[in-house]
Design brief:
Strand content: under 5%
Shape: globular
Radius of gyration: 11 Å
Number of strands: 0
Order of helices and strands: HHH
Number of helices: 3
Structural class: mainly alpha
Distance between the termini: 31 Å
Low-confidence stretches: none
Mean pLDDT: 76
Length: 50
């Protein structure tokens, strides 16, 4: 999961694209929760899109 966290933190992949890709993987629920947490943190750090 480290590569996923790095991709989120360094904005290598968009959250929507990442979720699409991860939907095809066999991650367990706790792993999805961790990824959602990282995505939420990244969204809070990102400048507002409005």
């Amino acid at each position: 999961l480290r590569f996923v966290q790095a991709a989120i933190e360094h904005e290598i992949v968009s959250p929507a694209e990442l979720r699409d890709r991860l939907a095809l993987t066999a991650l367990d629920e706790s792993q999805h929760e961790r990824i959602d947490h990282w995505l939420t943190k990244a969204a809070l750090r990102a400048p507002s899109a409005t």
